[in-house]
Amino acid sequence: MTISPADLFDELELRGVHLYLADDRLRILAPKGALTEELREKVAQHRSELMDILQQREIAASVDRPAPILAVSRDRLMPLSFAQQRLWFLDQLEPGSVAYNVPSPMPLSGELDVAALRAALDAVIERHEVLRTRLVADNDGIPQQVIDPPSAFHLPMIELSHEADPFRAAREWVAADTATPFDLANGPLIRGSLLRLADDEHVLALCMHHIVSDEWSADILGRELQALYEAFRSGRPNPLPPLTIQYADFAVWQRERLSDAVLDEQLAYWRTQLADPPQLDLPTDRPRPAIRSTAGAAVRFQLDAETTRRLQEISQQNSGTMFMTLLAAYNVLLTKYTGQDDLIVGTPVANRNHPETEQLIGFFVNTLALRADLSGDLTFTELLAQIRATALAAYTHQDLPFEQLIDDLNIARDRSRTPLFQAFFNYTTAVTVVSPTSSLESSADALPAKFDLSLTMGHNPDGSLIGSIQYSTALFDEATIRRMMGHFTHVLAAITSDPGQHVSALSILTAAEHQQLTVDWNSATAELLPFNGVHELIAAQATLRPDATAVIHDDIPLTYAQLDARANQLAHHLQTLGIGTEQIVALCLPTGPEAIIAIHAIWKTGAAYLTLDPEHPAERLTYQLADSGAAAVITGADAPAVGDVPVVTLYDSDTQAVLSAQATTAPDTTVHPQQTAYLIYTSGSTGRPKAVKITHRNLVNYLTVAPTRLGIGQPHATYLLLQNTVTDFANTILFTSLTTGGTLHIGPAQTITDPQHLAAYLNDHPIDHYKIVPTHLNALTHTTPPHTLLPHHT
Q: What is the C-alpha separation between 420 and 504, in angstroms, rounded?
């Protein structure tokens, strides 16, 4: 299809591709993946016409151009750029951190001219001031750039040819070097060694601190080293043209440039875009440490050529780029893992918007925070359109340093997380950037982790996509990340099959996981107990062992016969109040025998119970009563405001007289398995608390299988209840005990809050089983010897 130069120009602008003229030549600055091979061919075909359009626009332009970047005198103090200032500050917070060490191992095959290589390195470091720059704080604590004069680069030769596996030894050497800190004040901030693996196999193992380099810089370094090496080994002079400015000149320009209205306009955009930023809550294998760890690793994966081709087609069909398509898919993965529909992902931009900076080594890269809204059950193509619009708007506001943005948003400092976002995404069109030295890298490299999760995508020489997931090893296991990697590739495959699918319909499960969840883990069958309701199991225990102790509280026993008889009396009384099948009766009682009797009684009427915590705010209790439609409230003392709902106050002497007059035989009531056994409300952390219904069938199913699977449930076993009955956590041990003929101990309140009281109770009472959360168990094992956990079983 033919396209006019004007339409081509508009299409390029729409994709965020910036055309400009420099030295009577057409120059291009493009976002990651925006300039496809097809567009490159069209630009080459219409080069002269595009230059004419640019010249006409320049003549007609009336807007002020940003000031050019000029070389400044070196007799003044040279400030840090905004990006450098942030890394310097982080280095002050965590001295010795290696999170921003950037390894650049370069395999060298064939005969090597070591002298030419050393000369090339010296020339590159002489050419780029930033590679011989140190960052030194003045007397006021303000860091400045100190540029040292050129000197010979120290490049020791490391002999590895005698190792059994030289490549493995090289990997280990590079890893150890990467884990060695830089001294920003004393420098140098680039170091290197020449690893000799064989006569014709070497590795130039360079490592730089990110504060003087970035991904673009690494490409410049590689190209210039190659050009200089080839020239010097052939006896030719330095072929590289002189640089007009240095990185320090850019830092001065940036400080002056962003002190005007440009800063205000850019800040206004980002303030709106990032108002009330969400916090990413990924499910982790371990609790998040109070101070974020930079220990990390990475695993890599590869997509087949057909999936890559289809993703490229989808990008083009939706006027997007591969970067935008992959970022949209990454957001799908994150929303599936977190359940959040408001997400922020960080991504780098080269931030070289001026021709003077194109050939400079230095820390230019900026970070953009791209927000995605996945609410409303979008299709993937709708999400892609949103991501595209967000990215293009962000590119036009990319001059604002990320460091300035963080300061302006006044985000609360949390040393356990990176500010603003915890997930990162990077895409590059350069070939093999994800794994430039694959022969030197293992499948799970140890690398510093700047974020909880970072996804980098690039291309193999054959054009297929290759990816790397870098993760915090303080939070995730390698197996978890490999599973996540499989989920991401599965999402990409699903997108290529039908990009019009709703995001909610895109499954992250692989075929094997789907089989496991829907078939393998559901293939086991068990014969259900012949009871419709849970109360029938408890009543059966009262028939089998009436004199056995059901509950002990404050060392006072309650037998199964007493429990069942008192529950029958309360059930008859509730029926006189009109309580019956599928109604809700609220319990506002402390955890104790009365609460258990009340639950048993409510079930005997055919009703369901809702436990209210007397310690909860009155507003929450009132809301739950109204929302559940409770027909009555059973309480021990003062009841919450309940309007016209009948209240049964168990501790009242009049109530006790009424109950004692009721029959101790069970009421004639039929309960069906699908009837509601109890309601339980969520915490309400995402809005209003929501009620969840648990049926008798749910509980009977659990009580049929769980005791056997857990190796518990033997008659006469003893259990300790450590939780409030308002939690579902308590129910599993409470009902396991009472439906299997066990004895349930309800410990004093101190056993929940004080590990030493719990240890003392366990020592004084023969407890077989109790249920405890990991944090509670951790507190217990840190204050009492492990043998006190179940002292009667040691």
A: 26
Select from 185, 202, 184, 201 the least CA-distant residue to 193. Answer: 202
Q: Which residues contact 758 (CB under 8 A, 6 or more apart)?
A: 722, 747, 750, 751, 752, 780, 784
Distance CA 474, CA 293 (A): 6
Q: Who has greater pLDDT, 306 or 642?
A: 306
Peptide bond into 188 cis (omega under 30): yes
Provide the b/e sequence for 601-632 (b: ≥16 CB within 10 Å): bbbbbbbbbbbbbbeeeeebbeebbeebebbb
Strand partners of residue 471 = 297, 453
3-state SS string for 435-467: CCCHHHCCCEEECCCCCCEEEEEEECCCCCEEE
What tens digit of pLDDT does each residue of 307-359 get?
Answer: 999 998 998 888 888 899 999 999 999 999 999 999 999 999 888 878 888 89
Residues ≥6 apart with Cβ < 8 Å to 542: 550, 560, 561, 563, 564
Structure tokens at 307: 């999936």
The helix/strand/coil state of 625 is helix
The strand pair at 632-635 and 201-209 is best described as unpaired
What are the beta bridge partners of residue 633?
586, 647
Give the whole-angstrom CA distance, residue 563 versus residue 507: 49
Q: Which among 369, 397, 153 is positioned nearest to 269, based on CA atoms?
A: 397
State how far the Cα of 107 lies from the Cα of 196, in Å rounded to an integer.
10
CB within 8 A of 789, min separation 6: which ones? 762, 780, 781
Query: Beta strands of 473-613 (E only): which ranges?
Result: 549-553, 556-559, 584-588, 608-611
Q: In this predicted structure, what is the pLDDT of residue 519?
A: 78
Q: Which of 196, 199, 195, 200 is nearest to 110 (CA)?
A: 200
Could you tell me the two tokens for 44? Answer: 């080459």
- Number of other CB atoms surrounding residue 358 within 10 Å: 15
Contact status, residue 443 vs residue 248, Cβ threshold 8 Å: no
- In 3D space, the residue among 614, 572, 577, 607 whose CA is nearest the CA of residue 592 turns out to be 614
Please answer whether residues 466 and 454 qualify as being in contact, where contact means their C-beta atoms are separated by less than 8 angstroms.
Answer: no
Mean pLDDT of the chain: 86
> Within 10 A of 55 (CB to CB), how many other CB atoms are there?
12
Distance in angstroms (rounded) separating the CA atoms of residues 609 and 596: 11
* Residue whose C-alpha is closest to residue 177's, from 145, 155, 198: 155
Distance CA 478, CA 423 (A): 17
Instruction: Report whether 780 contacts 755 (CB < 8 A).
Output: yes
What is the C-alpha to C-alpha distance for residues 737 and 723, in angstroms, rounded to an integer? 14
Q: Angle between the 560-576 and 534-544 helix axes, to the nearest 10 degrees?
A: 140
How remote is the C-alpha of 115 from its chain's centroid? 48
Cβ–Cβ under 8 Å, residues 155 and 121: yes
The β-bridge relationship of strands 676-681 and 647-649 is unpaired
- 490 φ, ψ to 5°? -70, -40
Q: Where are the alpha helices (DSSP H) in 318-445?
A: 322-338, 380-395, 402-409
DSSP-based three-state secondary structure for 406: helix
The tens digit of pLDDT for each residue in 615-637 reads: 788 888 888 888 999 999 998 86
DSSP per position, 42-72: HHHHTHHHHHHHHHHHHHH--SPPPPPP---
Q: Could you read off the pLDDT of 50-92 as tens digits, one per residue?
A: 876 776 665 444 334 556 889 999 888 899 998 899 899 888 9
CA distances from 204 to 1, 201, 368, 439, 503 (A): 47, 10, 33, 14, 46
316-343 in b/e form (b: 16+ CB < 10 A) is eebebbbbbbbbbbbbbbbbbbeebbeb
